[in-house]
Design brief:
heterodimer; A: mainly alpha; Serine Threonine Protein Phosphatase 5, Tetratricopeptide repeat; two-stranded antiparallel ribbon; 2 strands; B: about 350 residues; alpha/beta; Rossmann fold; 6-stranded mixed beta sheet; 8 helices; globular
């Protein structure tokens, strides 16, 4: 089973819906340890993505994702703009001219995106950032593919790992971004970036399971 | 939330329209992407200075565009960094052929967006240098945090390097001077109240009637510690001594290598103040604290500087780098040498700062 272009478009649409629905929740998570704008910024960015999407819907998956990346870079701002923008740009570059994705393509795509995030943000594991959700998600996806799981099962495991990674940010002390200035006071709060990452992967699962 | 706004989504745009209407002799305003440039931009043969950051810190940065200070400023949404396309378009609009210096406050969002913009401008053949301002002594270490934030010294750097660019400094010299000003400057801020981001609709944090937050940045984010209220003298002493006694601060920053078109790591060390230093003292309101209180603070600060062997040779007092309506203030001390004083005293003509012109 492969992931089709239509499923990628559905993924982006579902991502927009879930991020806009969770605008307040993400912003509330960002209030005690950040600057109370993560949900607002992501909602603004994905509203723009929804405007742009129809104009590129007939292009290949690589181009669609690159357009999403450029749109986020030029509309989100904050740290999440360049980070998620870079994610989609690199993910798109990794699957240029593809009309559907094999399981290996899917891994290559997500891994390239996450590599871009790490390069731009210089985050390491347990810094209490979105990388703490991405990293276990990638590991789980790779293991599932190697074990011969089908796409749906592999993505289910990916999402479960992302959720665990997201929850595991709660006891961490932040070492990157604005939350790092709080020192020990950042402990006990779930990282908003790891949370939006989990939502994005959950949207992927819903688009593939439909 | 009680604010003088029309629609939450329009606050930045409406502010820019008002600025354009108020100061057509000084600035030009571009909408979508948003940026402010000086009225006579691009100035041929002069290094162009560009800064930017979230809105809500007015008059910084848009109010510091004009002769002798910034050539361009990019306002983001309230407390949200602007985007690389704004910075890139702004850089193109102000580049007079001598290159563009980005002055970037060390906040993760600003840093990542300006990095992307520097890459775009470089790809377009524009000479770029990018200098980080990281002067907030409330952040003690750079190993386990994103490093010291860029606060009050930003205003002083924009003024001083702006004067130097006007006097004919080239891009390299402007970057060197900006790095020096940053390394000579130290700041610390505090809040009596939180502030409300219009789009969020409620205060970012809450403080009890008898509480204050010490060591805040400029985005309504919580600070270093929460304490019981004290007198103005006690608070001033606590903050001033933390600045004056701050030890050497070392960290690695990323700067743009114009020749090779790549980011390079640079080790920087800020030396502590020492007895006999001359300083520029800057007492800043976070927006809600009246000038009367700032003067009370300045009085105590002057006394403390003298007692510690520092001679205040210039000062700046007022709301220049604010956090919306937050009550609170910050202190910045900048060690001043002859080069810094020469360009501090040089004429400046912007909406927010004007002398000698």
């Amino acid at each position: 089973m492969a992931v089709t272009r239509n499923q990628i478009i559905t993924w982006l649409e579902k991502t927009a819906v879930v991020l806009i629905d969770n605008k307040q929740y993400l912003t509330d998570l960002d209030s005690p340890i950040g600057d109370a704008d993560h949900g607002i910024n992501m909602a603004r960015g994905f509203n723009k993505v929804m405007e742009k999407l129809p104009t590129v819907a007939d292009q290949d998956i690589g181009n669609i994702l690159k357009t999403v990346g450029m749109t986020l870079i030029s509309s989100v701002g904050g740290a999440s703009g360049p980070l998620y923008g870079t994610f989609y740009m690199r993910a798109g570059t990794a699957v240029m001219s593809k009309e559907e994705l094999s399981n290996d393509d899917l891994y290559t795509m997500l891994q390239a995106g996450v590599e871009g995030v790490v390069q731009r943000g210089r985050a390491q594991a347990e810094d209490k950032t979105m990388y703490d959700a991405w990293s276990p998600a990638l590991t789980a996806l790779k293991a599932a593919i190697e074990a011969g799981d089908d796409t749906l099962t592999a993505i289910e495991k990916t999402v479960a790992a992302a959720e665990q990674g997201m929850k595991a940010t709660i006891p961490l002390q932040a070492r990157k971004g604005r939350a790092s200035y709080l020192g020990e006071r950042s402990i006990g709060h779930q990282d908003p970036g790891a949370t939006s990452t989990h939502l994005i992967l959950k949207a992927l699962l819903h688009s593939v399971s439909n | 939330m009680k604010k003088l706004i029309n629609a939450v989504d329009d606050v930045v745009r409406e502010q820019l329209r008002g600025m354009a209407a108020a100061h057509p002799d000084l600035i030009k305003v571009q909408i979508d992407p948003h940026y402010v440039v000086r009225a006579d931009a691009p100035v041929q043969g002069k290094v162009a200075l560009v800064s930017g950051g979230g809105s809500g810190h007015e008059p910084m940065h848009g109010g510091f565009v004009g002769m002798g200070m910034l050539d361009g400023a990019c306002p983001g949404e309230v407390f949200t960094s602007p985007t690389p396309d704004q910075m890139y378009e702004c850089a193109k609009a102000v580049n007079g052929g001598a290159g563009v210096l980005f002055i970037v406050k060390n906040y993760t969002g600003d840093v990542l967006n300006f990095e992307t913009a520097a890459e775009l401008a470089h790809a377009d053949g524009i000479q770029v240098q990018s200098i980080l301002i990281d002067d907030d002594v409330a952040v003690k270490d750079s190993l386990y945090t994103a490093g010291r934030r860029g606060v009050g010294t930003t205003v002083l750097a924009e003024k001083i390097v702006g004067g130097a660019a006007e006097a004919g400094y080239n891009l390299e010299q402007c970057a060197d001077l900006c790095r020096k000003v940053n390394s000579y400057g130290r700041s610390m801020g505090m809040a009596l109240t939180s502030c409300t981001v219009p789009a969020a609709g409620k205060p970012t944090f809450s403080l009890g009637d008898n509480e204050m937050e010490i060591g805040i940045g400029i985005h309504g984010e919580p600070g270093q510690k929460r304490m019981e209220m004290r007198t103005a003298d006690e608070i001033t002493e606590m903050m001033a001594l933390e600045i004056i006694n701050d030890k050497a601060y070392s960290r690695t920053v990323r700067e743009w290598d114009n020749e090779n078109g790549a980011w390079v790591d640079r080790e920087l060390v800020d030396e502590p103040f020492k007895s006999g230093d001359r300083v520029i003292a800057f007492v800043n309101s976070m927006g809600g604290t009246p000038v009367s209180e700032l003067y009370a603070i300045y009085g105590k600060l002057a006394e403390l500087c003298q007692a510690n062997g520092l001679t205040i040779v210039r000062n700046l007092i007022g709301p220049y780098i604010t956090s919306l309506e937050m009550q609170g203030f910050s202190i910045t001390l900048l060690k001043a040498d002859d080069e810094i004083l020469r360009f501090w005293d040089a004429p400046v003509k912007t909406p927010g700062l004007r002398w000698g012109a």
